[in-house]
C-alpha cells in the first residue's frame, strides 16, 4: 500500500456534522463491570476484536473511555512499550508486529500501540490486518471526536492521555503553528490550542473516582 493510502485511511476527515455523545464516566465504569449489562467489558472487547464495524457509537465510547478503569493498561513509560518504540524508530516492521501484538493483547484499545501496528502492517503491505486495525482505530477516534466540538471548555474534546491528544491533533490537522496554553482542573488538564484567535479545547482526563 502506498503512503498516501495510509494517510487517507488514518487521518479521517472531521468535516461534516456528527452527533455529539458526552460520556458519563460513572455509568461507563459501572456497566463495564456488570456482567448483566450489554456494555460489560468482555462483551464489548469480543466484538471490538472480531467485528469492530459492528459496534455503535455508544459501545465505542464505553470501550475508549472505559480504558481508564482497566488494570492492565500499557504505559509509554513501560519497558515493553519502550522496546516497541525503539523497533518503530529503527523501522523494524517485523519486531513492531511481534511486540505490538503482545501489547495489543494486553491493552487492545491503546491508540499508541494501534498506530504503530498500522505503520508496520502498511510497510509490510498486509492489507487484511491493516484494514482490521484501521476499523478499530476509527472506532476509538470517532468516540473522541463525538465527545465534544472543541469550541469551548464546556464542550472540549476529551482524551485519555497526552499521546491520544496528539493523535487527535493530527486528525484535526492542528500543526506546530498553534500555541498551547494549559490549565489544571480537578479531573484533568485543559489544553487550549490557539492560532490567530482560532481555538481548540482538548481535555486530558485524570479520572479517579
* Rg result: 17 Å
What portion of residues belong to β-strands? 5-15%
Q: Per the principal axes of the C-alpha atoms, what is the gross shape?
A: globular
Secondary structure: helix percent:
40-55%
Query: How can the largest sheet be summarized?
Result: 4 strands, mixed
Structural class: alpha+beta
Please report the total strand number as a whole number: 4
- Our count of helices gives 9
SSE order: HHHHHHHHEHEEE
User: Low-confidence segments, ≥5 residues, pLDDT <50?
Assistant: 1-5, 12-17
Task: Describe the strand arrangement of the main beta sheet, using strand numbers.
Answer: 1-4-3-2
First-last Cα distance: 44 Å
When the domains are counted, the total is 2
What's the mean pLDDT score? 90
Keywords:
4-stranded mixed sheet; 12% strand; 209 residues
Write up this protein.
The protein has a four-stranded mixed beta sheet with strand order 1-4-3-2. The N and C termini lie far apart (44 Å). It is 50% helix and 12% strand. The longest helix is centred in the middle third of the chain and has 19 residues, at 127-145. It contains nine helices and four strands. It has helices at residues 3-10, 25-33, 41-50, 57-66, 79-89, 93-106, 111-123, 127-145, 162-171, and strands at residues 157-159, 179-185, 188-195, 198-205. It folds into two domains: 21-145, no CATH class; 157-205.
